[in-house]
Amino acid sequence: MNVCQSCGACCASFRVDFHPVELAGGAFAWGQGVPKEMTLPVTPAIVRMCGTDTAEPRCVALAGEVGKAVACNIYDARPSPCREFDVEHAACNRARQRHGLLPL
Ligand code: SF4
Ligand code: SF4
């Protein structure tokens, strides 16, 4: 199993902001695009995944239990910041540490 499928810490640590063109129906949507109802408008050029800017962030699209077994409910349509983030990212281990997981 991919290590991320038993982690999910980044989906429950950081704000996830992107341009509204990646929303469903947008010109640069991946797959079906991100459902608008899963986002909040921040500025005319920024939308945010719901749940990612709270004191204990957790993206609304994250299913499962962090550190055990997780999945993204909109994986094929997830926005660009999620596509750019992986285990090579410097913030990966910060997120894991935040959730009491060992560094990779
Ligand atoms: S914090 Fe790192 S290991 Fe965990 S899901 Fe994100 S990229 Fe994968
Ligand atoms: S959209 Fe999916 S990959 Fe991106 S933060 Fe939310 S649960 Fe994680």
- H/E element order: EEEEEHH
Number of helices: 2
Oligomeric state as shown: single chain
Task: Report the bound ligands by name, code or SMILES.
Answer: iron/sulfur cluster
Order of strands side by side in the largest beta sheet? 1-3-2
Strand element count: 5
Assign the structural class, choosing from mainly alpha, mainly beta, alpha/beta, alpha+beta, or little secondary structure. alpha+beta
**Shape type:** globular
Distance between the termini: 15 Å
For the sheet with most strands, the description reads:
3 strands, antiparallel
The Rg value, from CA coordinates, equals 13 Å
Give the DSSP E fraction (strand runs of 2 or more residues): 15-25%
The averaged pLDDT comes out at 97
Number of individual domains: 1
Q: Poorly predicted ranges (pLDDT <50, ≥5 residues)?
A: none
Helix content: 10-25%
Key features of this structure:
104 residues, alpha+beta, two-stranded antiparallel sheet, 5 strands, globular, binds iron/sulfur cluster
What does this structure look like?
This protein has 104 residues and is an alpha+beta fold. The protein has one domain (3-98). 13% of the residues lie in helices and 18% in strands. The chain is built from two helices and five strands; from the N terminus they run βββββαα. Strands 1-3-2 form a three-stranded antiparallel beta sheet, with no helix packed on it. β2 and β3 (46-49) form a beta hairpin.
